[in-house]
């Protein structure tokens, strides 16, 4: 893969739990100063492979060698001793301790039972300076934005002489500007000679930071390609095991489509504030609403869903001007379906069956004289599960037992089942694997093309540009741009969203 000798080599790695093989015959090597992006659907084997490399999982077969020497990693401590560090998706830090204390806890000098604060602050500052990271080491971790907490974890790992750094979904909870900050620092680490393994559902990040992309499917390595010789579409096809094409977006500005609904003069004083926000929602299109933290996009999403107090202004449907809906029920009366950003706490009834959840918005169809027609409901649930490719053992299975991607498909499909005129989705693919993400985007495009309107409210730049026909950009509570056609690019959207903005993490 490079002119340099491999730092870590995996040969014939396999892992079995009982009679089930979750990894089979994985052969990979990793060189200093290079980044391998590791992708795959949920259940493809990524977490198990990361566990083998970091010492948390013992392989059933195969070998791991470091600089040519076969090594058995029996614990994460063994991995760290060999220069392998893992930054998990759920960060492991002490929130009430300072940045300096957190960094030095993981790098405590031998023979010291106690160290003065001045020494810890100086040493932690030196570590951050070496990485060109500007963070006040006296601040408590709990006070930092999430992106800075991620950078502190990177510094903590590298201070332990980590030579291979594994990052597991490092931007899953970050916003666009925070992600770019983290990626900028990771590029510097590569230049310093650090070997990176980057696990992510975000292909744009994988192609930006990765020198190559390794695709896992059903526990096997099905594709390994330099990023310059492959494409996101090919990568998704390798993950899914079938050809994939991006959903077709409109090439013009969509002006030929009639306006289904207008947001008119929305304002809100409390944070996140809105300032005379107005835009049209057209039939047959996927409209994106994009902005950074504090821009007001969350208030717009919740306002359309009837879940945001304090908004003045109106909604115009046809020639009728109506107040902003004050409850989800009033939003549904306006034929607005709403998918909230937090599926587990706001969107799903996890103890319900798949069939019950898929039909919850049309439950009246299965009630007769006070009795539920359970067979008819189960039949409708099976049809919806098949239509939206919800993968479950049976539609009687509880929703909480499904993978995150399938839970999200259940949530989106349940709203589509009611056939709303306007479907509003807030961060619909956050934390969802790439295969499910692609399917959800296709579902939204097909739903819009059938005559409804889709409003996709997202802080994911790739999603905002790639999965929409037209894009509204908000900054500081105001609409600052409407982008379509050739103008709808990631650079332009981010520049408009960030210019002069105030970011509140």
Strand line-up in the sheet with most strands: 6-7-8-3-9-10
Which outline best applies?
globular
Question: Which fold does the CATH topology of the largest domain refer to?
Answer: Rossmann fold
Question: What does the largest sheet look like?
Answer: 6 strands, mixed
Extended strand count: 22
Class by alpha and beta content:
alpha/beta
| Low-confidence parts | 500-505
Give structural notes.
- By secondary structure, the protein is of the alpha/beta class.
- The chain folds into two domains: 8-240, P-loop containing nucleotide triphosphate hydrolases (Rossmann fold); 259-335 and 420-498, Rossmann fold (3-Layer(aba) Sandwich).
- The chain has helices at residues 46-54, 76-81, 99-105, 117-130, 146-158, 176-191, 203-209, 232-240, 297-304, 328-333, 343-347, 354-358, 374-387, 404-416, 434-449, 461-466, 490-498; strands at 8-17, 20-30, 35-39, 61-66, 69-71, 84-87, 164-168, 195-199, 212-217, 220-226, 259-268, 274-282, 286-290, 312-317, 320-323, 336-339, 367-368, 371-372, 422-426, 453-458, 470-475, 478-484.
- Helix 3 packs across helix 4 and helix 14 (404-416) packs parallel to helix 15 (434-449).
- It is globular and about 75 Å long.
- Residues 500-505 have low confidence and may be disordered.
């Amino acid at each position: 893969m490079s002119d340099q000798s491999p730092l870590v080599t995996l040969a014939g790695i396999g892992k079995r739990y009982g009679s089930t093989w979750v990894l089979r015959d994985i052969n990979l090597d990793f060189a200093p100063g290079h980044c391998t992006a590791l992708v795959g659907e949920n259940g493809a084997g990524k977490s198990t492979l990361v566990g083998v490399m970091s010492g948390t999982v013992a392989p059933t077969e195969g070998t791991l060698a470091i600089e040519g020497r076969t090594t058995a990693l029996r614990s994460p401590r063994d991995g760290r001793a060999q220069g392998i560090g893992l930054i998990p998706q759920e960060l492991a830090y002490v929130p009430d301790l300072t940045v300096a204390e957190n960094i030095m806890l993981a790098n405590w000098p031998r023979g010291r039972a106690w160290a003065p604060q001045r020494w810890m602050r100086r040493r932690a500052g030196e570590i951050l300076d070496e990485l060109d990271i500007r963070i006040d080491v006296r601040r408590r971790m709990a006070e930092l934005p999430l992106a800075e907490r991620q950078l502190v974890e990177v510094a903590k790992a590298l201070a332990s002489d980590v030579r291979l750094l594994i990052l597991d979904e490092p931007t899953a909870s970050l916003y666009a500007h925070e992600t770019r900050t983290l990626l900028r620092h990771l590029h510097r680490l590569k230049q310093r000679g650090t070997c990176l393994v980057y696990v992510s559902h975000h292909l744009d990040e994988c192609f930006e930071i990765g020198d190559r992309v390794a695709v896992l499917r059903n526990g096997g390595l099905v594709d390994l390609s330099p990023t310059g010789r492959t494409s996101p579409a090919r990568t998704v096809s390798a993950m899914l095991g079938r050809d994939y094409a991006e959903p077709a977006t409109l090439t013009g500005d969509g002006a030929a489509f009639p306006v289904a609904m207008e947001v008119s003069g929305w304002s809100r004083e409390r944070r996140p504030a809105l300032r005379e926000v107005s835009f049209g929602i057209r039939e047959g299109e996927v409209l994106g609403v994009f902005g950074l933290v504090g821009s007001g996009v969350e208030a717009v999403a919740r306002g359309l869903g009837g879940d945001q107090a304090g908004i003045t202004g109106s909604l115009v449907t046809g020639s009728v001007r109506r107040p902003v809906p004050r409850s989800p029920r009033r939003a549904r009366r306006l034929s607005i379906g709403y998918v909230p950003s937090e599926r587990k706490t706001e969107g799903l009834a996890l103890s319900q069956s798949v069939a019950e959840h898929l039909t919850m918005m049309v439950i009246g169809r299965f009630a007769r004289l006070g009795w539920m027609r359970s067979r008819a409901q189960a039949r409708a649930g099976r049809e919806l599960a098949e239509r939206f490719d919800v993968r479950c053992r049976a539609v009687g299975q509880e929703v909480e037992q499904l993978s995150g991607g399938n839970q999200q498909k259940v949530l989106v499909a349940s709203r589509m089942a009611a056939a709303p005129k306007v479907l509003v989705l807030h961060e619909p693919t956050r934390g969802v694997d790439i295969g499910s993400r692609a399917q959800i985007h296709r579902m939204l495009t097909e739903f819009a093309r059938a005559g409804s309107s889709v409003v996709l409210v997202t802080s994911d730049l790739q999603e905002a540009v790639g999965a929409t026909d037209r894009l509204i950009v908000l900054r500081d509570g105001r609409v600052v741009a409407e982008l379509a056609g050739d103008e709808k690019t990631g650079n332009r959207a981010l520049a408009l969203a960030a210019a002069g903005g105030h970011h509140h993490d």
